[in-house]
Hints:
This protein is of the alpha/beta class and 548 residues long. It has helices at residues 4-21, 25-40, 45-50, 63-75, 79-87, 90-95, 103-113, 118-126, 138-154, 160-175, 187-190, 208-215, 252-260, 263-275, 297-303, 319-325, 347-356, 369-381, 426-436, 461-471, 488-496, 516-525, 539-546; strands spanning 158-159, 180-185, 195-196, 198-205, 221-227, 231-236, 241-246, 278-281, 284-287, 290-293, 339-343, 361-365, 387-395, 413-417, 442-443, 474-478, 501-504. It folds into 4 domains: 4-153, Orthogonal Bundle (DNA polymerase, domain 1); 158-247, Beta Polymerase, domain 2 (2-Layer Sandwich), CATH 3.30.460; 251-325, 2-Layer Sandwich (Beta Polymerase, domain 3), CATH 3.30.210.10; 334-546, Alpha-Beta Barrel (TIM Barrel). Strands 11-12-13-14-15-16-17 form a 7-stranded parallel β-sheet, with helices on one face. The model has no long low-confidence stretch (mean pLDDT 95). It binds 2'-deoxyguanosine-5'-triphosphate and calcium ion (2 copies). The site of one calcium ion has 6 residues, from helix 11 and strand 4.
Amino acid sequence: MVTNAEIAKMLSQTADLLEIKGENPFKVRAYRNAARLVENSSKDFNKLVKEGFDLTKLPGIGNDLSTYIKEIVTTGKFSKLEELKKEVPQGLVDMLAIEGLGPKRIKQIYDAFHITSLDELKKYAENGELDKLPGFGPTLIQKILKGVKQLKKAGIRFLWADVENVAEDLREYLLKFPGVEIVEIAGSYRRRKETVGDLDILVVAEDYPKVSEYFIKYHRVKEVHSAGLTRSTVFLDNDLQIDLRAVSKESYGAALHYFTGSKAHNIEIRKIAIEKGMKVNEYGVYKDNKRIAGESEEEVYKAVGLCYIEPELRENRGEIEACIKGALPKLVKLEDIKGDFNINIDINHAVNFAIEKKYKYIAVNIKSQSDIEMIDELNEKYKRKLKIFKAFKTKILKDGSIEESELMNKADLIIGEITDNLDLDFQEQTKRILKAFEKINILAHPTCRIIQKRSEIRADFEKIFATAAEKNIALEINANPKRLDLPDPLIKEAISKNVKLIINSDAQNEKEMDFIKYGINQARRGWAEGKDIINSWNLREVKKFFQI
Ligand code: DGT
Ligand code: CA
Ligand code: CA
């Protein structure tokens, strides 16, 4: 589902890119007006389109824009914008975020020097070339230099899994300091977002300035940005920013809630409080200027009339409404997992790992006749303790047929994956996947995205979900932290269509079998309960689902 804000963003990005390209100003303005209209509308455009409302009745929306908005709502993407992104260098798009640089000036810079990256922009600003352009005075040049610096820092996002070790190490490091009572890592890290911009650490301690002094001596600190009386910011050797904040015990819950975010969730909570004549901030909940809550998060939610909402759900994607209706999901947990269905390592190693984790079943990818014999023997050996299924992993070809083999007939399960022709158009890609559904049991990494490196394939996931639910095809949540595929919004949508999902490690070595925990993070962010996740079920239910 696409929100009004998302539609508006795509339209206004299109306007920016058209303007950088120097397109007709009337056209540019039409996109901007449409973006504003959608953004400020009290009506949900998603709903309007689904109800068949004639968008051209709205002021400033002609046939073209109406078609575009429909495309965005139904596919979640805007092909015109995708095309423009291919034409306009990313560096120029990045420059839009610099204060003082709009599309017009970026075009001016590009036309004069043909520069397309932030680094080049910095060079031209420093060596005095930019000054030669009309309107580029010293103040603007300073702004540009500052903007480039900020952007380069802000632009770096880290995979959640890549900051996990340092986050937990810092937590332990801080807890060791005398007088430190509580250390909690809030922000996107606590919400288990697939990437994090920085770490927001809260600390309850007797003497904060002393803790701060100790904090900035952490062995991986490269640069101390600031160290104040209640807040300190440093950068680690890998450029990860860490914000440390002092919090008092009585307002710990309110601070934890505020700094866990997301911002969008916080804004909604504050609205609810205001409606009830209350005020919420990082220090507590107030009524008639009196503090009525703040020590724990539970207390904060309760004070505004809500139940506790798990951090993974706090994205303003309906969690507050669900809480009011008593319909919050009971999220799946790592302890619920009873198996792994996409394992590419030595069978004996996989079996040992599974037994250690007390898994009830696994599926290993078979590559030869001897694999089959080995699995038969192991099944004999571990009767009742562990069931080992034979999975045959195969490529889904361009036309939706699959690469077949003798081994297929001896497998319990067929796992299909798309590895090429990722840029097929929406219709063709959809058709390809639906056709593959006739042959496969599990669709691996359904969108084929690689986080921050490769975008999702274009396909009609609404249709794919409907068909998967009808035919009992399991969709994978690939737990590799670089993939986390399905992405969480799609997990939420799949579940609402009654699709069953399976969290797989896709391990290439024994260590990676532990990836499952990242898949759990993602599943929880997608509102998944045990009933939605096949490998949290017992063996009998799994066999029944796949009819094996
Ligand atoms: P990140 O670091 O980009 O991965 O995302 P977050 O969510 O960790 O964001 P960050 O580090 O900028 O701020 C941490 C939390 O602090 C954020 O989730 C919510 C809260 N917060 C920050 N700025 C604002 C604000 O302007 N308004 C409200 N309501 N909350 C804010
Ligand atoms: Ca953060
Ligand atoms: Ca922060």
